Amino acid sequence: MPTHTTLAATGNSVVAEAMRQCKPNVMAAYPITPQTTIVEEFAGFVAKGKTDCEYVTVESEHSAMSACIGASAAGARVMTATSSQGLALMWEELHIASGMRLPIVMANANRALSAPINIHCDHSDIMGARDTGWVTLFAETAQEAYDNTIMATRIAEHPDVMLPVMSCLDGFITTHSIDRVSVMDDESVAGFVGEYEPRNALLETGTPVTHGAFAGLGGPYFEFKKQQREAIENARAVVSAVGAEYSALSGRPFGAIETWGMDDAEVALVVIGSTAGNARAVARHLRADGKKVGVVKVRVWRPFPYADLAAALKGMKAVAVLDRAESFGAEGGPLYLEVRSALYDLETRVPVVGYIYGLGGSDVKLELMERVFSDLADIAAGTAAPAGLVYLGAREEA
Amino acid sequence: MQQLTEIRWHARAGQGAVTAAKVVAETALAADQYLQAMPEYGPERMGAPIKAFTRISSDPIEIHCNIENPDIVIVLDDSLLDIVDVAEGLTDDGVIIINTCTPPEQVRTAISIPATARIACVDATGIALDTIKRDIPNTPMVGALIKVAGVIDMDTFKGLLAKNLAKKFGQEMIDANWASVDRAYEEVTVA
């Protein structure tokens, strides 16, 4: 059984620790707020000889991901971290990493995109990378960020998956807050993730292979993409199995979605990331007053857990979906669209209302959660119709 | 019932508020408490007014938002009293601890604060210059915090302080920091 040590540490610090424990062979990274302390601490581990890893300093995130792709194709276990504009600059490489089926693990410190300039938390960066083919996990807390990093390594390298995995934590809120976190001993983590056995490695010169070759008209491009879809569909079962195994090891629960109060809830709030805690805290108070409210947290964003959401939300009198990102011109934010889609095949229609909140690190006050539950109560009681998209807490004049 | 204490720190960048908030959090952890310590990040430059937040609780802390109704406010620089509403949202039975030579009765006339809230004053800068020989008031302010509000244990705090300092400094610096904590504990006045 593992030895558990409780720390007072930031999310970034324990992500760096988890990466060290997963023993990557190569890290190529470029600093960007609020991710920087991950790669900074990891660089410290390399400098002090605490990990045997080739650390490549590069001149941009585009180069960081390019170097990660090269190293991963060569046969190395590869990790990196980024945020916001950095993730945006990686965009074309993100597709190449997933298209070449390279099990790179990357932490993303969720941060707003310019313009206007903003360094604080929202999910604009990661939602922009939604269709790049990466398996994507979200953390609510520093603890989950640590746990997700370790699970990500196993999920990425699973023979049925072989896809890059992004492990996302909320910028500043989770990356920079000191929180109470339990970490495991090195040996237990190393045992859990195991040795990486690359397939089709470029440095296996005895069995030469080509990666990412031309597959134009009449070539296998179309079929490659079909295989990518099969791989990320396979990830559903792998995430579930790895999660169960990790849960047994760590003693902490894991699910693609995590529900609170949903056994007898009449209304529910669906949310991703650190705001789930705010929603639960308010839900606890409402429960104490006899209100049948529930909270559903989405921890795995890609592959999206449609069936789990449908099962959890079936029969709800009203559902609120909170998005910390925009999808301009769409009916609502990215999570809203997915939840609506997840509920489409239910026999009885569930009223769903969408909220955009917390963009650019706008403080997620508890009264905002109270307002959402109050709206849900009105819809459930039939005294109000579901409103169009709400910009939750936005000032009329700013 | 959850025992939750919320602390808001006001300081100027470079005075060690974030470091102090961190050691307070570590001290709470050593007592098997749950904790959160987060600075409010903005464009950082030495001397700019900054805020930091600490939550200490008997149970896991779920919420992730700024502290608007602190039980305790700690002000590391009294020049902030004129430019920041340091007591904003302070609970009626709360306490504000200020690094200043001005007595608490006089501070009360200068800031907006609930009549029932306590004001505690200590010359942490003077103490720091005397003991540590540098204008770093964060450590003595924790001594005042322990005297006025409890929240964390003195011996545990001093132990962790020594452990943190030992990474960069010798015993002399540890002794000086301990002396600054003890003096602030003795000298803080409350009204």
Descriptive keywords:
heterodimer, A: alpha/beta, Rossmann fold, six-stranded mixed beta sheet, 13 helices, 19% strand, B: 191 residues, alpha/beta, Pyruvate-ferredoxin Oxidoreductase, domain 3, seven-stranded mixed beta sheet, globular
Concise description?
The complex is a heterodimer of chains A (398) and B (191). Chain A is an alpha/beta fold and 398 residues long. Chain A has helices at 11-22, 36-47, 61-74, 84-89, 91-99, 124-128, 142-157, 186-193, 221-250, 275-288, 306-313, 334-343, 366-381; strands at residues 4-10, 26-29, 54-57, 78-82, 105-110, 135-138, 165-170, 178-184, 257-260, 267-271, 293-298, 300-302, 318-323, 352-356, 390-391.
Describe this structure in words.
The complex is a heterodimer of chains A (398) and B (191). In chain A, 40% of the residues lie in helices and 19% in strands. Chain A contains 13 helices and 15 strands. In chain A, strand 6, helix 7 and strand 7 (165-170) form a beta-alpha-beta unit. The longest helix of chain A has 30 residues, at 221-250. The radius of gyration of chain A is 21 Å and the shape is globular. In chain B, helix 2 links the parallel strand 5 and strand 6. With 191 residues, chain B is of the alpha/beta class. Chain B contains 6 helices and 7 strands. Chain B starts with a strand and ends with a strand. Chain B has one domain (4-190): 3-Layer(aba) Sandwich (Pyruvate-ferredoxin Oxidoreductase, domain 3). In chain B, strands 2-3-1-4-5-6-7 form a 7-stranded mixed beta sheet, with helices on both faces. The A-B interface holds A 6-8, 34, 119-120, 170, 172-174, 176-180, 274-275, 277-278, 280-281, 363-366 and B 21-22, 25-26, 28-29, 34-39, 41, 60-66, 68.
